[in-house]
Amino acid sequence: MNWNLFNYPMNPPVASNFAAEHDALFYAIVGQAVFFGLLTFALILWFAVKYKKGSKADRSSPQYENARMEFWWVLVPTVLGLATFFWSTKLFVDMRTPPKNAKEIFVVGKQWMWHVQHPDGVRENNTLHVPVDTDVKITMISQDVIHAFYIPAFRVQFMTVPGRYTQMWFRPTQVGRYHLFCNMYCGTQHSEMGGSVIVMSKKDYADWIAQNGQVRENLTAAQTGEKLFNKIGCGNCHGAQDLIPRGPTLRGLFGTTRETGDGRKWVADESYIRESIMRPAEKVTKGYGVTMPAYDKTFSEEDIMNLVAYIRSGASQSLPTSTIAAAMPGIQARDSMGRSGLNSNEMQFNSPRADATPTRRGSAPSVGAMAVEKGDQQ
Ligand code: HEC
Ligand SMILES: [Cu+2]
C-alpha cells in the first residue's frame, strides 16, 4: 500500500520484507482510532441536539441499563485491542529475531558518520550497499554517544549504544537508493549524519565487493581479528586448552555459559566478549585472577569487532594457538623479574602495538576527512 494523497506520499517507499506489514498495522491502528473517535463525537453531537433543554424528545421511559448493548461495547473494542496487540507483538518478535544465516554487516556510529564494514572486509562510510532479497543482519555499536540507525524505506530503526552491541535485520525487496538517517539527536551535526542505502541485484553486489577487494587487502573480519590477536599476543595467555593461571582457552567460547568467581553466570555473546577484552576485571572467570590487561584504551571499536568475529569463528573452527602457550601447558608465568603472576601494566606495556589505526578512540577524523579518504563509493 503506497498512498499518495494530493501528491504528498503518505509513507516512504515499500522496500523491505517488513514494510508492507508495518504499514498495514499502522493504518489498522489509525483506522480504529479514527472510527471510534468519529463514532463517539457523532453520538455526543446527536444526543446533545436531540436532548437539548426544551426539545420535544420523548423522555417518558429513561433507560439506566442495557446489558446487551454494554456486552457488545465491551466485547468489540476488547477483541480489536487484543488483535492489534497480538499482531504488533508478532511483528515485533519477527523484527527482533534475525534469521540464522543472515549476512552480517557491522556498523559503527560516531559523531557524525556511519562506518560500515562488510563481512568480506570491504568498508564504506555513510553508504550501505546490500544485495536484494537477502537477509541482512546489522550488528552495531557507537563509539561516542547514542545514535540510531534508521532506514525509513525498510521501516527499521534501532539505537546504537556506546559499550554494547545492538542488532537489527531486514530483507531488502526493491533495488534502489534509499535514505539512511541518524534518528537520535547526537550533537550539532546530527542532521548531517546520514547517507544512502543502496540495494543492488545480487550480481551487482558481488561485483561491487570484488571491485573493492582489488583496492585494499581483502580480509574477512575474522581474519583481520586473527592478525590482531597474534600481533597483540593474546595467545600467550589464551591457548589450546585452559592454562591456569595464565588464561582460559577461547576455543569454542562463543555461546557457552561462563561462571565468574562470585558464582554469577553469563552467556558468552558478542557483548560479553567485548567487555572481557575492554574491561576484563568486570567479569573475572572462575579460577582466574585479574591478570588480563584492560584493552579499552588500545583498540578502536572496529578492532574489537574484528577480535569478536575471530573468537566467534573459533566456535566451529579451532583457534590456532600461540606456540609458546601450546608448548608449555600449565606453565607458571613469570615476568622479567622472575616473579610469578603477571603484572597487567607490564604486559600491556610490552605487547607490540605497531598497527595504530586511524580510527583509534578519541582521534576520529572529521566527517569531511573520512569522506575524502574513502571516496564516495556508489
Ligand atoms: C596476561 C594474560 C592475558 C592476555 C595477554 C590476554 N588475556 Fe584474555 N584473559 C586472561 C585471563 C586470566 C582471563 C580470565 C579472567 C578474566 O575473565 O578476566 C581472560 C579472559 C578473557 C576472555 C573471557 C573468557 C572467559 O573465560 O569467559 C576473553 C574473551 C579474552 N580474555 C580475550 C582476550 C584477548 C582478545 C586478548 C588479546 C587482545 C587477551 N584476552 C589477552 C589473560 C589474558
Ligand atoms: Cu547520531
Name the beta content range: 15-25%
* Order of secondary-structure elements: EEHHEEEEEEEEEEHHEEHHHHH
CATH architecture of the domain at 103-210: Sandwich
- CATH superfamily caption of the domain at 103-210: Cupredoxins -  blue copper proteins
**Structural Rg:** 28 Å
Name the overall outline. elongated
- What is the averaged pLDDT score? 80
Number of strands: 14
Distance between the termini: 29 Å
The helical percent reads 25-40%
Indicate the low-confidence ranges by residue numbers. 315-378
Query: How does the major sheet shape up?
Result: 5 strands, mixed
Overall SS class:
alpha+beta
Please list the strands of the largest sheet in the order they lie side by side. 5-4-3-7-10
Instruction: Supply the number of helical segments.
Output: 9
Could you please say which CATH topology of the domain at 103-210 applies here? Immunoglobulin-like
Hetero groups in this structure are: heme C, copper (II) ion
Short description:
The protein is of the alpha+beta class and 378 residues long.
Can you characterise this structure?
The protein is an alpha+beta fold and 378 residues long. The chain has a domain at 103-210: Sandwich (Immunoglobulin-like). It has nine helices and 14 strands. The protein has helices at 19-50, 67-96, 202-215, 221-232, 270-278, 301-313, 323-327, 344-350, 367-374, and strands at residues 4-5, 8-9, 103-110, 113-117, 123-125, 127-131, 136-142, 147-151, 156-160, 166-170, 176-182, 194-200, 257-259, 265-267. A five-stranded mixed sheet has the order 5-4-3-7-10, covered by helices on one side. Helix 1 packs antiparallel against helix 2 (67-96), helix 4 (221-232) crosses helix 6 (301-313) and helix 5 crosses helix 6 (301-313). The chain is elongated. The chain binds heme C (HEC) and copper (II) ion.
